[in-house]
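Section 5: illustrative case.
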């Protein structure tokens, strides 16, 4: 059984160092995962791809093994050293990111993206599980928010580096370079981060001790999906991810197609405007939920709810602007507001399950969200834009968009009318398709409304009584507590 005496006395500075390294792990993960969306237009033109194929590379190729391996990887994380698993996973996906730069065909790039998915499937569950054992229930959302800063900061790094490298050295160089930092970080994680017993922080906070026996996948799934709040929050995560991946895969192409910006400009815009705004929203969501959740657990549902409702019209308005500056400002505002959803959602779910269920819970959430978002969302968004491109283009001299606009652009020697028609069709199709996808955020908001109705009771059941106002341990354990 887990208890305070079984754990090392870790200083606040050391816990901060561990959290920083795990945040950098998340940063590398998202940089390698999302760089394709920033430089996708260059790949599309170079390899003469359709938007369905681009969406396939961005979503399905990455997720086909990411989805199937995440649960087995989580099961290993419940039993074995999580630090070793995290270090190995980042080394694997970083290698495949660099290898993507050597791809000469759609098939070769597809295989590399599958390799990235394999590596990333193994890393997130143990990382979440480790954080919940370093940080207590009432500071967990804030800690998870800091970890999740890796998402927007990774988008920033991937977008800026990817865009600049693609503009001046080509998209292959961008992949080769972005895979290298992860190999160094894997070594640092292995040397510095210590494994801790499962349930460490919960025991210090006076919660029920954690069993040394890891529940099965089926037991964990039954537990998680038996909780009404968790069911609705997972559905909210799934719908948000569907929109975020589906629309997000085409944000950079949208800026290129609609405003004729170059890849370096697009990378800087996504990095500094959109990435930074997501970082602010991610941290703010965790802080607000922890702050207001001390007196009202419904805050863990209200914060995401308000963010999704307010962000939806801002994002839709952005796609309809004729001035890129206004579009970017609206996207940045929407990014701040919508990304408050993440940390409160995961913290609430983790607070309702046993410590030895958390890695598997992470994998189950990823499984459900990825099946809908990564496998379907990006391909569906690409198919919608392809269909709308054909609709807006119509026919010219008996031929359609796919024939006269391979890769979304007309041949350099094509008549001016065809070149202009290609540009206009894909511009309008991308705007309309992204606006339509964004409406899914309102559906996600409905599930957070439903979660708010049961969260207080579900929190109380998870802890065996009313929620404590603080997770501070007794004075004799204060130095070791989170």
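Designed sequence:
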């Amino acid at each position: 059984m887990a208890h305070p005496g079984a754990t090392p006395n870790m200083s606040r500075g050391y816990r901060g160092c561990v959290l920083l390294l795990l945040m950098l792990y998340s940063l590398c993960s998202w940089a390698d995962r999302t760089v394709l969306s920033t430089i996708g237009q260059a790949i599309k033109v170079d390899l003469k791809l359709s938007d369905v194929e681009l969406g396939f590379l961005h979503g399905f190729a990455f997720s086909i093994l990411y989805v199937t391996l995440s649960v087995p990887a989580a099961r290993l994380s419940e039993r074995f050293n999580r630090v070793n698993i995290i270090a190995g996973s980042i080394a694997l996906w970083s290698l495949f990111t660099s290898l993507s730069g050597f791809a000469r065909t759609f098939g070769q790039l597809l295989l590399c993206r599958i390799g990235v998915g394999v590596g990333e499937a193994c890393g997130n569950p143990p990382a979440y599980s480790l954080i919940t054992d370093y940080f207590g229930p009432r500071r967990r959302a804030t800690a998870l928010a800091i970890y999740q800063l890796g998402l927007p900061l990774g988008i920033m790094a991937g977008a800026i580096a990817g865009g600049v490298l693609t503009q001046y050295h080509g998209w292959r160089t961008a992949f080769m370079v972005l895979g290298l930092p992860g190999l160094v970080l894997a070594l640092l994680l292995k040397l510095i981060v210590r494994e801790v017993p499962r349930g460490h922080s919960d025991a210090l906070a006076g919660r029920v001790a954690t069993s040394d026996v890891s529940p099965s996948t089926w037991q964990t799934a039954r537990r998680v999906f038996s909780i009404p709040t968790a069911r609705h929050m997972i559905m909210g995560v799934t719908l948000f991810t569907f929109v975020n991946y589906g629309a997000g895969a085409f944000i950079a192409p949208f800026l290129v197609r609609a405003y004729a910006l170059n890849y370096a400009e697009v990378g800087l815009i996504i990095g500094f405007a959109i990435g930074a705004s997501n970082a602010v929203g991610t941290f703010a969501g965790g802080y607000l939920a922890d702050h207001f959740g001390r007196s009202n657990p419904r805050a863990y549902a209200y914060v995401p709810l308000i963010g999704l409702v307010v962000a939806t019209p801002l994002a839709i308005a952005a796609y309809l602007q004729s001035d890129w500056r206004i579009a970017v400002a609206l996207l940045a505002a929407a990014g701040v507001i919508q990304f408050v959803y993440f940390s409160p959602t995961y913290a609430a779910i983790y607070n309702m399950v046993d410590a030895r269920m958390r890695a598997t819970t992470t994998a189950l959430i990823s499984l459900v969200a990825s099946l809908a978002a990564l496998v379907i969302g990006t391909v569906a968004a690409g198919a919608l834009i392809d269909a709308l491109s054909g609709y807006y283009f119509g026919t010219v001299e008996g031929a359609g968009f796919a024939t006269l606009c391979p890769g979304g652009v007309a041949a350099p020697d094509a008549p001016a009318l065809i070149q202009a028609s290609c540009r206009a069709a894909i511009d309008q199709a991308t705007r309309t398709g992204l606006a339509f996808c964004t409406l899914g955020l309102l559906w996600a908001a409905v599930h957070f409304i439903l979660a708010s109705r049961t969260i207080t009771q579900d929190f109380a059941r998870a802890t065996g009584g009313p929620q404590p106002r603080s997770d501070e341990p007794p004075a004799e354990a204060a130095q070791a507590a989170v």
